[in-house]
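The records we work with from here on pair a chain with its fold. Taken together, the tokens spell out the fold as the letters spell out the chain. The record below shows the convention in full.
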Amino acid sequence: MPFFDPGDDPGSSFPELLRRIGLTPVVTGDRGSVDVPHATTCVALRFADGVVMAGDRRATSGNLISHRSMEKVVQADSHSGVAIAGAAGPAMEMIRLFQLQLEHYEKVEGSLLSLEGKANQLSMMVRGNLPAAMQGLVVVPLFAGYDLRRQQGRLWAYDVTGGRYEEREYIATGSGSLHASTVIKVGFRSDMSRDDAINLAARSLWEAADADSATGGPDALRGIYPIVATVTADGWQPIGDDELATRFEAIASEVRAR
């Protein structure tokens, strides 16, 4: 067994021990690294009749914009949705597999999986991605939906280890999450109407895009607007671009006046 001087002890780190005794190469800089597309900033919040989910459309590879119209907020089934941040490729694959599993359960059992069961299923999928996450391909989704049993909207956040955490009011993830969640925190009310909740989600993405270069704001020139959807007792309902254009123009007018 190797011996180390007190000042050279690698401590409890096994990778550092291997490096000290020469069993792993020392890699400096970022040689061999690959900039994969990353999805950013998504939010979800509760309102009186359910939940609103929203996400910007930009995906970045390092300092480059790799996609301008990525869909980060996706319908999972009739009464739930997923929003993703992190490595875009693994995230989209995870969402497609999650949708397939929910559809398979419904066909086999003849009924929908409970909303909490869906949250647990997604948690196991995030946990299964941990080896890839340790190599930099991190996927951190949000899950939200309308619980038909409790008759209310519910929200879940996740970490890279698959831990799931139910939130009572709102959640945000991605590089602009700090700015987005601050806006929602200031404007959130538990009894908000659908219109107020959509406006608050839109405002949070506007402010995130204004402060975070990886978050894309509304692009009126190309007709690209964030993905926004509500989930209520009536199911998943996406908000059309025409309606979003009107809402974002109202925000822009307010900012110009200010």
